[in-house]
Amino acid sequence: MAYIVDCPSTSSCSPGQRKLRTTKVEDLLERLGRHPSSEQVLRVLEPVLPSWVENPKKATVVLSALAKKKLPGAATQVLAAMLSQQAEVNSFHVSSVISAAGRCGDWALAMSLLQRPELAAQPTEIAWNAAITACDTGGEWQRAVLLLSQMQLARVSPGIVSFNATLSACKKGSDWQLALGLLRRMAAERLQPDMVTFGAAIAACGSSWQSAIDLVSQMLAAKLHQESAHVWDSRAKPGYNAAISACERSGQWQSAIGLLFEMGSSWLVPDLVSFNAAILSCREEGQWQLAVHLLNALSAVGLFPETSTFNALLAACGARWPMALACLHGMQARAVVPDTISFTAAIAACEKGSEWLAAMKLFYEMEEGVAEPSVVSYNALINTCDVKWQTAIHFFERMLSQEIQPDVITYNALIGAFARGSERALAFSLLTTMRSEHVSPDDVTFIPPALACQQAGAWQDVMAILPLMLRHRLVPDAVYAGCATSTLRACKGEDYAFAFLRNLRSLWEPDGESRISDGPEVLRKGPGIVAVLKPAHVTTQDFVESLRQRAPVGTALSIVSRLDYPTSGVLPLVVGAEGSLQTNWFRSQFAAGLVRKEYYCLCEGPSLGEVGVRGEVDMPLLTSEVEGGEGGLVSRSEVSEYGRQAFTEYEVRRRFRFPELQQAPEDEVMFLSVRPRTGRTHQIRVHMASLGRPLVGDFTYGKRSETSVPFCPRLFLHCHSIQLVDVEGAPFLSKADITEDLQAVLQNLHRWAID
């Protein structure tokens, strides 16, 4: 379609002039901009509208071109001009205009076109599909589902394209149940899903990895044998990639890797999207070595790592900052340019590893290179400052000078630096700054000031935080409740602390559906709580997971306290979901130091005194993540002035001495009753080792060889009892006798008792 520019009539221009001065109508309309007026459009269309009346296909060509150019404003005005000139408007015209809106995500315009009375009889399945796509592009997945339902009311039968477009929109909401419902509806309407259908449905599963894997199995079962290998690869690969991403988002790295290898057995060649998602899944449980292996495996399928691939590997580094630095420098060796995400991930690794100097060096490298710092980069950097609040302020001011708008995470990091640096007043003043800058606090914002108040014993200040949280409609969680209750207990007494805790109950929603059945592990049950006997040589997480699998359907068990892998004894579990009244109630008691626990342990070294002698260890403990024996990260604690307060009381119950095994004349083996007043990681083990009396069988903090008790089969540490207050305010006490293996050790030691 051509139009003669600047010639009022064709007779006034020579044929040569007409050839040189003709322009497509759609190009002229494009020059009018994204929002032309009706007069401008009508002026352009005036010479061609008569021919459109005779041949509506010419209008279809122009409207289709405007749709490709993403010009819904011009397309809408063209449609209006056609109606005003009584030109035929058919379903192809309406579909093209809706398609133009869809390509721009203008779902409101698309839906309004469907509802216009003068166009009500025109929309066909193509038009409805275009409107659904508009909702998808605009992120309005609920409206896409609504349009699919309205199609039948408009006597338009949805086809497979309609369902595929709706499923594609559903991935924005990650509503796997809705996706499965749409598949069932397709079956009811006898529509055979294709590979696009499965790919969209799997993407809609979000983090529901089990549903995603089930759909992959259905996709394989529905494979069309007549399809060539190339067609199968291009159609099925998005579904596999979406399933791998679902596993990654839910922390199921084993399943993600399994799907990656399954692609090869299904005649699919993984692409970079496949590998990137699989590598990213390796950040769970410290599987960085596997991530490196996957990176090196790219060449086997003819792929080369890109920046996004290395970014996934950097995320898998976790707190391993030396590896993150090596990964960043390895990008340059492969001629891969790091971006802002690359540097930010490496800085975050330094932050997790408490390496603030390395983080600052990376930041300056980023500024000198092609990458520009972002708010996320600054947030990670400020977080590394820890107690160095002056440095945190420096980078905060630098951030403002670069016109980078701080967000709530920025303020949280800065408030945390103030609080940890004993600058409580500055932390509170920053809360006022947030309000003036219209930055809304979140659940994390008030925790560092509360911890600082707890450290300083400022009970009035910690109480003042509560109305600030409520003003922003934030429900105080167990961390704040524990800080406040602990401060009140230390300053005003235990009764006052419990009174405050009871007042918070009205802010927490109870979970009334969970229940636990009796079993050999169950020691005692109470309102909202169950005490179980955890055996040695199993993690708390794995043990609780086994209980969940055997519990009635709908039962929620929450962990509020943990026992180490080699430790046995009483383990309290909350019968309620995370964030419920039950969980917050008990977790607050632990955080406030209101729970009384007693352990039995066996230690060796110089004598602590006669039977009945009591003592206390008051040494701060710093916990960090270090490399474990199998390449994963494990927690280790050490006595450090930079750590958190930790108090342990002990009493000598029994003493043993056998000269043929002891390493020094004054050495003996002591059976102790130990009561930790705080709950730091490995607290009893580290405190006793710091006294030169490590626990028997402790090969991490104690003697790795030449122990005085070689017949002890494991770490001699057992949680004997726990006492707290249940959700109804009644005392709850549960005890567990020493396990048989440890009883046997005491019996063998009996003949060497000295008291």
CATH architecture of the domain at 524-752: 2-Layer Sandwich
Question: Main sheet, how many strands, which sense, barrel?
Answer: 10 strands, mixed
CATH class of the domain at 524-752: Alpha Beta
- Using the CA coordinates, give the radius of gyration: 34 Å
* Mean pLDDT score: 84
State the share of residues found in helices, binned by percent. 40-55%
First-to-last CA distance: 109 Å
What class do helices, strands and sheet pairing give?
Answer: alpha+beta
**Uncertain runs:** 1-22
Q: Tell me how many strands there are.
A: 14
How large is the count of helical segments? 34
Oligomer state equals single chain
Binned strand content = 5-15%
Task: Walk me through this protein's architecture.
- Among the domains are: 1-158, no CATH class; 400-507, Alpha Horseshoe (Serine Threonine Protein Phosphatase 5, Tetratricopeptide repeat), CATH 1.25.40; 524-752, 2-Layer Sandwich (Pseudouridine synthase), CATH 3.30.2350.
- Strand 13 (717-725) and strand 14 form a beta hairpin.
- Strands 3, 4, 5, 6, 7, 8, 11, 12, 13 and 14 form a ten-stranded mixed β-sheet that branches. A two-stranded antiparallel sheet has the order 1-2. Strands 9-10 form a two-stranded antiparallel ribbon.
- It contains 34 helices and 14 strands.
- By secondary structure, it is an alpha+beta fold.
- Helix 25 (408-420) runs parallel beside helix 27 (447-456).
